Amino acid sequence: MDDVLRPLIVVGGSVVLTLLLGWATDLLLRKADERHHETPLWGLLRRGRIPYQLVLCAALLRGAYDEAQLLRSHGSGVGRTLTLVLIGSAAWLVIRIAAAVVETSYTRYASARHQRDPARVRRVRTQVTLIRRVVSAIVGVVAVAAMLLTFPAMRAAGASLLASAGILGIVAGVAAQSTLSNLFAGLQIAFGDMVRIGDTVVVDGEWGTVEEITLTFLTVRTWDERRITMPVSYFTSKPFENWSRGTPQMTGIVFWHLDHSAPLEAMRDKLRDILRECPAWDGRAYNLSVTDSTPSTMEVRALVTAKDADDIWTVRVEVREQMIRWLTDAHPYALPRVNTADAVLPPSRDGRRFPDGIPAARRVHSHPRER
Fold this sequence. Notes:
Strand order of the largest sheet: 4-3-2-1-5
Shape: elongated
Strand content: 15-25%
Number of helices: 13
Distance between the termini: 141 Å
Structural class: alpha+beta
Radius of gyration: 37 Å
Number of strands: 8
């Protein structure tokens, strides 16, 4: 009878005690989160309740397994399994706690400086993201190493592994050269302030926003919702445009190809009126001038300003559309056109012309049979 009741009491008691402690801890965290709305720490710590309960259950079962006297013939295997579960769940819990602390620190920093220095906030966000990934990787490696050391064969092979660590390190470094270069490039991006999450960049002619930065790759979300993934080493070895570097203010250009008779002064007044009605214009500056000319048209350029890349796009398309509509309605002669009429030639010396406009002298010379 004792052989049946003892395992049930030990296992059942461990599970019930784990559930009670998990419920009580979650209740305390929930109350703390309701009282302290200024920090998200307590709400983020609640995400670790599952690994927390696994740690409690594995620790209780591992400590009481010898007293339970369950599966004596497989005692070594069961004990090692519980130890592995304990190590894995403890690593999981540490990662969740570290993520909660880092996210809370970033949230406080961002709420305090978002209005004054948004570029600095994006930089800290990039660093925090990469630091969290590095911590997770380190904890994972330590947990795997601790699991391997629970096997006697691995402990016995430790000396030989250490002896060959130098050679293996050289071989691994050569084999993973590209991976290591991306790893160091990711750290360089994180702390060198080259590019940050949320920056507007132009890469290989593609305009988009940096959406994710890891230790090995970077993802850019384009304006048409596509994702471009590339190794982070690209940003340390090739030039790219970062429109968010420094101040986000930008100057945009709008071109028109118009007839030489286009009313430039009226276009300048119309540009001013269009910008005054455009909410995306920041009011800093505008300009309109002729930048080039051809035998049939001239190139007119307008300069407009906005507070960031999104607004400069809105201002450009608004100015382009409204100016063309105004020219079509009020000054249609200013739009470019293809001349199909005969050219008007200069008069002859005696001033005589035929009805088709060709000088008489040239007409007679062109048709010698009529002389």
